[in-house]
Amino acid sequence: MEGWSFLTNHARVLLCIAHDPGVRLRDIAASVGITERSAYGIVTDLTAAGHVVKQKQGRRNRYQIQAHLPLPEPTSQEPAIGEVLALLAGASAGRQLTRGNLPEAIAAADTTTTESGGISA
Predict the structure, then answer these.
(1) Long-range contacts at 85-92 (CB < 8 A, ≥ 24 apart)
(2) Which of 46, 26, 44, 23 lies closest to 35, judged by CA?
(3) What is the mean pLDDT of residues 74-98?
(4) With left for phi above 0 and alpha for psi between -120 and 50, is residue 50 left, alpha or beta?
(5) What is the rounded average pLDDT for all residues in the chain?
(6) Nearest in space to 82 (alpha carbons), one of 43, 54, 52
(7) Dist. CA 119–CA 121, nearest whole Å
(8) Cα–chain-centroid distance for residue 53?
(9) What distance in Å separates the CA atoms of residue 35 and residue 112, rounded to the nearest whole number?
(10) Residues in contact with 100: Cβ distance below 8 Å, sequence separation at least 6, in sequence order
């Protein structure tokens, strides 16, 4: 049986970009475990969908996640990309993301426990 991953490669690439908006495709590929060509294709998908904005800075690219946009999921309650990234990246990384890369949509990246014991963001 082949191994599987809970997150898609697109989600994992988004997390790489969230941790380092100036990350190189080579580093994304190494982190996710895919080829550079695949990383390029995924970043192209994300930019074409409007979820990531790519800006040229010298010879490198800098990425900005549009955290306020809803996830492309067919659910009744579509959380914003930033909310999901804050949960996946963790509270300390979420604070860092809100300063440099993600707008105020996830400024409350610190999670709190609800009365029922669940986590809310």
Answers:
(1) 85/14, 85/15, 85/18, 86/121, 87/111, 87/119, 87/121, 88/7, 88/11, 88/15, 89/15, 89/18, 89/19
(2) 26
(3) 66
(4) left
(5) 77
(6) 52
(7) 7
(8) 12
(9) 38
(10) 21
112 vs 87, residue with greater confidence: 87
Backbone angles phi, psi at 8, to 5 degrees: -75, 165
Cα 121 to Cα 106: distance, rounded to the nearest angstrom: 8
Q: What is the secondary structure of 12-46 as a DSSP string?
A: HHHHHHHH-TT--HHHHHHHHTS-HHHHHHHHHHH
Domains of the chain: 9-120 (1.10.10.10)
The mean pLDDT of 28-53, rounded to a whole number, is 97
What are the residue ranges of helices labelled H in 1-121? 9-19, 25-32, 36-48, 81-89, 91-100
Indicate the pTM of the whole model: 0.67
96: pLDDT confidence band, cut at 50, 70 and 90?
very low
Tokens of 60: 């490198």
Q: How far apart are CA 35 and CA 12, in angstroms?
A: 14
